[in-house]
Design brief:
single chain, 350 residues, alpha/beta, Rossmann fold, 41% helix, 16% strand
């Protein structure tokens, strides 16, 4: 959370630093050293904003080019907002009401989803959102701001709960996604869903679930998948664990995959989305921060390369300064760019 605050709420720290710098006008001791340190601090805190401008310069054209043949020609689309604007850093994140619906009952538990109704009339495309939390925590209320923005942009949004480790193991969450899709199809008339236009979106562990479902669940209507900093290669991820002081990543994976890799290697291979990429795979948007210490940047590079080898339309939004969960602040530098990328991806695909 501290890393997210520094990189996405940098203006707050810049304000504090400027106040400290101004105090140096009256406090003479260590004045030169303190001023130099303050100026360096402000420059470092401004880096995400400067880099966001640079990344956003050609973002629309790059995304349109990546998905040019997936829907209508790119030239027919005009963006309602720019990829990044300084003034938006001061805006509040959007909010919307939702209703909670039970979508499946198992002998030992029931699962619900939060449904954000589109502000547009008629049957609309549906975005199925899958939360993160190391497969063992989190819920459908995680980072709801993007759900609100998407519903206000004309999409139906279903943010789902799924069965969590260690009580339930893989592939239980993918089965839950499939159950959610079945429920949404069954109630498409009541919920005003266009069942021919469904997108899966996941964050972190939820992105692994979203990717795996998108590449393996054989249901018509799944048009694409959005991967926010997800582990795409579980075998490689086990071989290069996160620092123990940050997270016991091997233990987290063992809880989800019913054991450590040497014991159940087939579970790791079977839960790696990268293993299921083929020429038939759906268009994919990948979003990842270069300073992510929980899910290695390499996961996204490997997935992007595999998609490229199979000719699958995809785009990898690389945010060199961003850390895990950077989209916690939807109007921060990373949040603005990722939101724009999601919106532009949806326009092209749907």
């Amino acid at each position: 959370m501290l890393a997210i605050l520094v990189s996405e709420y940098g203006l707050l720290f810049i304000g504090v630093t400027v106040l400290v710098l101004l105090s140096g006008l009256w406090i003479k001791k260590y004045q030169v050293l303190g001023t130099a340190a303050g100026i360096i601090t402000v420059a470092l805190l401004l880096l995400p904003i400067v880099k966001a401008y640079n990344v956003g310069t050609n973002l629309k054209a790059d995304i349109d080019r990546a998905f040019l043949f997936c829907g209508k020609p790119a030239k027919t689309f005009s963006s309602a907002f720019k990829p990044f604007t300084f003034s938006k850093l001061f805006q509040k994140d959007p909010q919307s009401a939702f209703q909670t619906l039970k979508y499946v009952s198992y002998p030992d538990t029931s699962l619900t989803l939060d449904y954000y109704k589109s502000n547009a009339t008629g049957k609309r495309p549906c975005i199925v959102v899958i939360h993160g939390g190391s497969w063992s925590s989190g819920d459908s209320r995680q980072l709801p701001e993007l759900n609100a923005m998407l519903s206000q942009s004309g999409y139906q949004v279903a943010s789902i709960n799924y069965r969590l480790a260690p009580r339930w193991k893989s592939p239980a969450p993918v089965q839950d996604v499939k159950a959610a899709l079945t429920y949404l199809r069954k109630h498409a008339g009541q919920l005003q869903i266009d069942t021919g236009k469904i997108i899966l979106l996941g964050r972190s562990a939820g992105a692994q679930i979203a990717l795996l479902a998108a590449y393996t669940v054989k249901q018509q209507g799944i048009k694409g998948v959005i991967d926010f900093y997800g582990p795409a290669d579980m075998v490689w991820g086990y071989s290069v664990p996160a620092p123990k002081l940050i997270m016991d990543s091997r233990g987290v994976m063992a809880n989800y995959l019913d054991g450590y890799y040497p014991k159940v290697p087939q579970n790791y291979a079977g839960s790696s989305p990268i293993r299921y990429v083929s020429v038939q795979s759906v268009p994919t948007l990948i979003i990842h921060g270069g300073n992510d210490v929980l899910v290695a940047y390499e996961h996204s590079r490997r997935l992007s390369e595999k998609l490229k080898q199979n000719g699958v339309p995809h785009y990898w939004l690389q945010l060199p300064w961003a850390t895990h969960g950077f989209d916690h602040h939807l109007n921060g530098p990373g949040g603005q760019l990722s939101t724009f990328a999601v919106q532009q991806f949806l326009r092209q695909i749907l």
